[in-house]
Write a structure and sequence with these properties.
The protein starts with 21 loop residues before the first helix and ends with a strand. Helix 1 runs antiparallel to helix 14. The chain folds into two domains: 173 residues, Aspartate Aminotransferase, domain 1, CATH 3.90.1150.10; 253 residues, Aspartate Aminotransferase, domain 2 (3-Layer(aba) Sandwich). The strands form five sheets. It has a five-stranded mixed beta sheet, with helices on both faces. The chain contains 16 helices and 14 strands.
Length: 462
């Protein structure tokens, strides 16, 4: 039995869950077009679709909600948020937004020029979409190990400097004006980057006049791995590691719905020296999000976020958080379920390509696997593969990424060890009947970010 880390908190309030039958869930699945995003929350028993905005807030955060200053301009909660960002992350300038993709929109519209090349340590769906809408060309510069689910390399989030150098040699530093780095890479399985890699990247970028902007959505979890795995950081506090990560960037955006420990919110943040870009984003936020002192968030939400940024740096919280994810990972690994290794920080990722090897990638095995796990036990998960990758805009063909995954994403401070055991049983039951699982075909396909709203139908088996 894998080791369980006891949660460093106690339950103060409960939300009842509805247990349904397999027949009922199958009907729900058919009505949702085999897309777990289209299931009604009331029909889900354990919701592992995402860790975005699904965390449980602390009693201190709930108390902070009552201190919301809902003034249209100059809310005191905005200044509290700015103080927390400066204290925890070290950034001098803050632009609040309603959530992370609002920040991405502002950033890419103001920074990117048509034809710019945007290197990233693997794509994220909305980040790449915003870059492409602004006229950018995405290029993957993550290390090769990140595309191999079986690799045990501990720093799968690292940027491959040779790939970046090749891009600069091909396009020139005038077109490669930035690198986008995401600590704890979501699409690779919640895999961290090392501090050594960030330092090497920063040195190279300074020499070539290239700026680094980070997606710090899961930065505290990356800091936990650095403290745990990287030589020289065992005695550092999580907050100090977080600030050190951010020090190797020029600015960042954050979906605060993850490591901000809140249900809604986000921001852009910039170091000193980036005042021109900050002013551009601050001007545009008024057009798309809200006044620059609330940016689409209520005062109470900014207060909860200011508290959450400090709470997420608590070492005991992070040990229990990552420990719970590992607990589920080890339960599945014991039964030889194909997984992404090593275990990441925010979820367990199933290798759908090996789980359902009889299905071609254009039969969307990860999409069907997520559907089958829901039908089996009422556990909702998410596809992160061919459907999420979308189509090549030039050829119209599926991108067919090397990783075809299902993500079991663990909300923060929400579920117990028993919920993880039940989830493992549901996945294992599907694994035992995997040969009988059919593929899927599109019944409806949106033009952009299709994984959110697409509908599918099973392909009849011969």
């Amino acid at each position: 039995m894998p080791r369980c880390f006891p949660e460093p908190y106690k339950i103060k309030m409960v939300e009842p869950l509805q247990v349904t039958t397999k027949e009922y869930r199958q009907r729900c699945l058919e009505e949702a077009g085999y897309n777990t995003f289209l299931l009604a929350s009331k029909d889900v028993f354990i919701d592992l679709l995402t860790d975005s905005g699904t965390s449980a807030m602390s009693d201190v955060q709930w108390a902070g909600l009552m201190r919301g200053d809902e003034a249209y301009a100059g809310s005191r909660n905005f200044y509290n948020l700015c103080e927390a960002v400066q204290e925890v992350l070290g950034y001098a300038h803050v632009v609040p937004t309603h959530q992370g993709r609002g920040a991405e929109h502002l950033f890419f519209q103001n920074f990117l020029r048509a034809g710019d090349v945007v290197p990233m340590n693997m794509y994220f769906t909305t980040t790449r979409q915003h870059a492409e809408l602004a006229g950018g060309l995405f290029q993957d510069v993550i290390v090769d190990e990140a595309h191999d689910p079986a690799s045990r390399f501990p720093w799968k989030g690292n940027v491959d400097l040779e790939k970046l150098r090749a891009l600069v040699a091909k396009y020139g530093a005038d077109r490669v004006r930035m690198v986008s780095v995401a600590p704890n890479v979501n699409m690779a399985g919640g895999q961290p980057c090392s501090m050594a890699n960030l330092k090497e990247l920063r040195s190279y970028c300074k020499q070539n006049g290239i700026r680094i902007f980070m997606d710090i959505t899961r930065i505290a979890e990356n800091a936990h791995f650095i403290k745990e795995r990287e030589e020289g950081y065992a005695q550092w506090s999580i907050k100090d590691i977080v600030r050190e990560i951010c020090a190797h960037s020029d600015g960042a955006w954050m979906s605060a719905k993850k490591d901000g420990l809140v249900n809604i919110g986000g921001f852009l943040a910039f170091h000193k020296g980036q005042e021109d870009l900050f002013e551009q984003c601050r001007s545009m936020v008024v057009v798309y999000e809200g006044l620059h002192t609330y940016g689409g968030m209520a005062g109470r939400d900014m207060e909860a976020l200011a508290i959450g940024l400090r709470e997420v740096c608590q070492a005991d919280y992070l040990a229990a958080r990552v420990g719970q994810v590992r607990f589920l990972h080890e339960l599945l690994d014991e039964e030889k379920v194909p997984l992404v290794h090593p275990c990441g920080g925010h979820g367990v990722f199933l290798n759908a390509r090996e789980f359902l090897p009889h299905l071609d990638q254009d039969q969307y095995p990860a999409q069907m696997l997520a559907a089958q796990i829901y039908a089996e036990g009422g556990v909702r998960s998410m596809e992160r593969g061919n459907v999420s990758a979308g189509r090549d805009p030039e050829t119209g063909q599926n991108r067919r990424p090397r990783l075809e995954l299902v993500r079991l994403t663990i909300p923060r401070r929400v579920y117990t060890q028993t919920h993880m055991e039940y989830t493992a049983e549901s996945v294992i039951d599907v694994f035992r009947r995997r040969e009988k699982v059919p593929g899927l075909a599109f019944a409806y396909e949106p033009a952009m970010l299709r994984f959110f709203q697409a509908q599918f139908a099973p392909i009849p088996q011969e």
